[in-house]
DNA sequence: TCATCTATGTATAAAGA
DNA sequence: TTCTTTATACATAGATG
């Protein structure tokens, strides 16, 4: 009788998981599950959702539809009447600033994808500072190169639009309006 | 074989619910479920989570452990600082799904800008559903048209990339991986 | 609207590859 | 270790009060 190939899902107590390897697995699974649920809720009910998760090491994972910062800023402005001062959108008083910020978001996304491709291109080196960091990438090299090229093309396209409208400081090629500087993409390539 | 008192849970397609009463019920249930999942993740893994939900009517629901405002401020300071990274994308453990979601976000942004142009085109009737509708009147019509065209071009560009990599179901123009399109004004009427 | 019930879909804890 | 598999816990669609 009864030699089970698996015990199946076991009931667990909702309390802090102490075993680190176990915690890491659970975190990854449940984080994915949480984001999926949020995504479904967005689609089913036509709502907008932002989720921000800080790991114990202070790393950030976020989900946002249509955009985390957009929703966060709206949340702050709703709850404090005026802009809280912590909220990024620079107010130039002409309406362009918000649009500017918005496009900045797009550019950031594109830039991240482009850099992602570059990272994939070169031998990805893990910084490995934390025990939960997972050094993995599933994209094949060829796919990564294609993606990088496609993203580069897209980025140029966005850049033209932005330049056309004068959204960027012409003297600062790295500096986008809202945020600037290269981002640390390693965080999002490796878990937690 | 007695008659079943209930059919039990039925499988549903993840697409926008059109029936308003049904939508309301689903929203309430799944919102509660989402917050519960977040709560469990906080406890199990010792992470900090903030969730902000905007209903189509603009009503805000939020979850935060330890506190939404605290986490939001931290998130913004992280992302505004010159040294630290930008917001990481949602991490599903699958590289492609992450990328897919990212491109979805980009598409979403572009789509919003495109609609912005259209709204501006058709004589400024602002119903205040989106953040950008307030300052929008300050944009000149000519600028708006330029923007619309540029965004349309960009959108096509993104679409090509996505199709090239097969990220989207070519037969389903609404169903992106992460989230679906922007809200219609239908549920705008319902108070949730 | 809001809670409850039931049957079933889905997420996931553990173990295996 | 990362990905699958398995069995089960949990979430929830639809009906009902």
UniProtKB/TrEMBL annotation, chains A, B:
<keyword id="KW-0539">Nucleus</keyword>
<keyword id="KW-0804">Transcription</keyword>
<dbReference type="GO" id="GO:0005634">
    <property type="term" value="C:nucleus"/>
</dbReference>
<dbReference type="Pfam" id="PF00319">
    <property type="entry name" value="SRF-TF"/>
</dbReference>
<feature type="domain" description="MADS-box">
    <location>
        <begin position="7"/>
        <end position="67"/>
    </location>
</feature>
<dbReference type="InterPro" id="IPR036879">
    <property type="entry name" value="TF_MADSbox_sf"/>
</dbReference>
<dbReference type="GO" id="GO:0045944">
    <property type="term" value="P:positive regulation of transcription by RNA polymerase II"/>
</dbReference>
<dbReference type="GO" id="GO:0046983">
    <property type="term" value="F:protein dimerization activity"/>
</dbReference>
<protein>
    <recommendedName>
        <fullName>MADS-box domain-containing protein</fullName>
    </recommendedName>
</protein>
<dbReference type="InterPro" id="IPR033896">
    <property type="entry name" value="MEF2-like_N"/>
</dbReference>
<keyword id="KW-0238">DNA-binding</keyword>
<dbReference type="GO" id="GO:0000978">
    <property type="term" value="F:RNA polymerase II cis-regulatory region sequence-specific DNA binding"/>
</dbReference>
<keyword id="KW-0175">Coiled coil</keyword>
<feature type="coiled-coil region">
    <location>
        <begin position="137"/>
        <end position="164"/>
    </location>
</feature>
<dbReference type="InterPro" id="IPR002100">
    <property type="entry name" value="TF_MADSbox"/>
</dbReference>
<keyword id="KW-0805">Transcription regulation</keyword>
<dbReference type="GO" id="GO:0000981">
    <property type="term" value="F:DNA-binding transcription factor activity, RNA polymerase II-specific"/>
</dbReference>
């Amino acid at each position: 009788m009864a030699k089970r190939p698996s015990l199946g899902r076991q009931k667990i107590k909702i309390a802090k998981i102490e075993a680190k390897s176990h915690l890491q697995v659970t975190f990854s699974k449940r984080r994915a599950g949480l984001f999926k649920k949020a995504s479904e809720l967005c689609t089913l009910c036509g709502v907008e959702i932002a989720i921000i998760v800080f790991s114990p090491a202070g790393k950030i994972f976020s989900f946002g539809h249509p955009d985390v910062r957009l929703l966060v800023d709206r949340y702050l402005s709703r709850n404090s009447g005026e802009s809280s001062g912590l909220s990024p959108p620079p107010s130039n008083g002409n309406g362009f600033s918000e649009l500017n910020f918005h496009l900045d978001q797009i550019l950031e996304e594109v830039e991240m994808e482009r850099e992602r491709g570059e990272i994939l291109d070169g031998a990805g080196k893990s910084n490995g500072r934390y025990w939960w960091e997972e050094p993995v990438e599933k994209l094949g090299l060829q796919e990564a190169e294609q993606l990088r090229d496609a993203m580069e093309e897209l980025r140029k396209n966005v850049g033209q639009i932005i330049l056309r409208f004068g959204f960027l400081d012409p003297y600062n090629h790295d500096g986008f309006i809202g945020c600037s500087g290269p981002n640390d993409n390693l965080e999002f390539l490796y878990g937690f």
